[in-house]
Amino acid sequence: MHRGKGMKFVGDSRVPAKQAKFIPPKDYSEYPGKTEAFLPNFLLKEWMVGAVFLVGFLILTISDPSPLEKEADPTSSGYIPLPDWYFLFLYQLLKYPYASGEYKVIGTVLIPAIAALALLLAPWLDRGFERRPIKRPIATLIMLLTFVAMVYLTWESTVSHNWEQAEQQGKIVQTVDFDKSDPGYKIFSQNCAKCHGDNLEGSSLAPALVGKGLDPATVKTMATKGGGQMPSGIFKGSDKDLDALAKFVSDVSKK
């Protein structure tokens, strides 16, 4: 038998002889004006839409800039944190008794883990072919409960937050250089730094003292008798210590 002669091909009976090809039911040329070239027509439209969103985003950043706060102080125990909006529901969850304190593992690990596991198991929890929500009660109920819980916790977090105190604690204040070896600073750190800050920059508990222009007599009065939100009897020390404290705070406040 010569190569290419006398050869017969046997077909597989399981494959139909006339198998329909996977082609669109209609030719798209039947829809004039509905097609366009990718370059430059379609791509130019995409760029134009992207440019509109970019310009809008830039306008928002200029008209309403991000609220920058002062430099973070890890030693400040009175600072009230507030996460970004997409974490507010978790932030509010950690305020409840059985999700914080001794039960913080429940709020930080257990509940988020259950939510993540439910999301991963969603294709197996509801294997129906229906797309209408009313025909898929399990998936619909889970999604509605999740949505309602996130919206409620986010709303509750915003209305219960002390926005005035947060604005004061994050305000950028003036800082000055001074000699921390000054005897008056040692007395200040023992009596006043807990509320007014180590650098007299203030905190959520007390205002800043920098730039106030306080005289020594006023400092002595405030330290011994108090005033405003400051209670009396804060200062503990001798008259000599009080004079040193008053001179130090007065000198720094006038810078």
Structural write-up:
GO terms for molecular function: electron transfer activity; heme binding; metal ion binding; oxidoreductase activity. Its main location: membrane. It is found in: Membrane. Residues 179-253 form the Cytochrome c domain. The chain is mostly helical. Among the domains are: 85-161, no CATH class; 183-253, Orthogonal Bundle (Cytochrome Bc1 Complex, Chain D, domain 2). 48% of the residues lie in helices and 0% in strands. The chain contains 10 helices and no strands. It has helices spanning 38-63, 88-93, 104-120, 122-125, 137-159, 163-170, 183-191, 193-196, 216-225, 239-253. Helix 9 (216-225) crosses helix 10. The longest helix has 26 residues, at 38-63.
Number of helices: 10
Shape: elongated
Beta fraction of the residues?
under 5%
**Quaternary structure classification:** single chain
- The CA-CA distance between the termini, in Å, is 110 Å
Bin the helical content: 40-55%
Specify the biggest β-sheet.
none
Radius of gyration: 35 Å
- What series of H and E elements makes up the topology? HHHHHHHHHH
Structural class assignment: mainly alpha
Tell how many strands the DSSP assignment holds.
0
Low-confidence stretches: none
Give the mean pLDDT.
Answer: 78
Protein name: Menaquinol-cytochrome c reductase cytochrome b/c subunit
Domain Cytochrome b/b6 C-terminal region profile: 28-155
GO molecular function, one term: electron transfer activity
InterPro entries: Cyt_b/b6_C (IPR005798), Cyt_b/b6_C_sf (IPR036150), Cyt_c-like_dom (IPR009056), Cyt_c-like_dom_sf (IPR036909), Cytb/b6-like_sf (IPR027387), Cytochrome_c550/c551-like (IPR051811)
